Amino acid sequence: MNPIFSALQTSVFEVMSQLARETGAVNLGQGFPDDPGPEDVRRKAAEAVISGWNQYPPMMGLPELRHATAAHYKRWQGLDLDAETEIMVTSGATEAIAGALMALITPGDEVVLFEPMYDAYVPLVRRAGGIPKFVTLTPPAFGLTEAALAAAFSPKTRVVLFNNPLNPTATIFSDADLDLLADFCIRHDAVAICDEVWEHVVFDGRRHVPMLSRPGMRERTVKISSAGKIFSLTGWKVGLVMAAPPLMRVLAKAHQYITFTTPPNLQAAVAYGLGKDDSYFEGMRSDFQRSRDRFTEGLRGLGFSVLPSVGTYFLNVYIAPLGELDDVDFCRRLVMENGVAAIPVSAFYAQGAVKTVVRFCFAKRDATLDAALERLADRKQGR
């Protein structure tokens, strides 16, 4: 068996979810909404199964979806993308990330990673032959510094894998951060694979700024988006990949030999959804922001130190003021003794640098959040 995968332990996400199932806990660990997603988009998918094409779609994706993607990102992010040569559809963003790493890395190339990070990054980099080089981000800002980047980049740097907005920190990198990273990519002739799946789930009037738009990055950026996150349909696994033609030609080869295509009915529904009025996207953000505020207020009322959340489905609690210094132990006790499942943020650090932050998912119905707060109140009162 390949040691990269056979040596991996059961993920903390599965451990906590299993404990939640066994104990009947309120599960705020897994990152998906209670809401089933927009009905009109789901109906388009159902209609396309009955009356649409169900054989192999084009390898690059349905033309209608690629053109809808170009129009969508022109409207929302000011990007000028050629639907025929610069856009590809994959079976989820994780497939897009895996394919990009396989396409761009040769054995021995170094890949700059920013921890905390999505847990798939490190094994995928290693399986592609890359050598991870970590930039460790710390609370509360989780921002970049020139010194940290200088320590990670080298003449062997080939790729930067960059998640913005950042899960699990629920933060957004500043324009200054983006420009600093762009400067390092240009100086070291590195390609930025940008995991931007949370680009629409941002709050307080913010608009996502893609790395693709920064000076000097148009020809060296792979932008990866997720219809599952845009429409709160996390099980759909429809990824959208954008890159300049020289990069896309190689990315497409990797995609061709991984999944080849993505279900055409889902592609048709996503094409429809990307053209929805601004009111849908603004309303989605407003609803999640309301849930964020509701849960934040409840946690603070119970004495928890809540870190700012400006994007994603998550918010984080700093547990050191509670006298807690081990987030894994804290989360185990929380689910076993108080019936609330959360995720220790140390699970997102390859080097375990931060052990005092815990992540909750607030993309839930009011009743679910209220039930969690009631159980957390029992913890405070020692019941």
UniProtKB/TrEMBL annotation:
Belongs to the class-I pyridoxal-phosphate-dependent aminotransferase family. It comes from Bosea lathyri. It catalyses: L-aspartate + 2-oxoglutarate = oxaloacetate + L-glutamate. It holds the Pfam family Aminotran_1_2. This is aspartate transaminase. Its cofactor is pyridoxal 5'-phosphate. The keyword Secreted does not apply. Keywords: Aminotransferase, Pyridoxal phosphate, Transferase. Its EC number is 2.6.1.1. Transmembrane segments: none annotated. CDD domains: AAT_like. Residues 26-376 form the Aminotransferase class I/classII large domain. It is an enzyme of class 2 (transferase). The keyword Iron does not apply. The lineage of its organism: Bacteria, Pseudomonadati, Pseudomonadota, Alphaproteobacteria, Hyphomicrobiales. One of its GO terms (molecular function) is pyridoxal phosphate binding. GO terms for cellular component: cytoplasm. Homodimer.
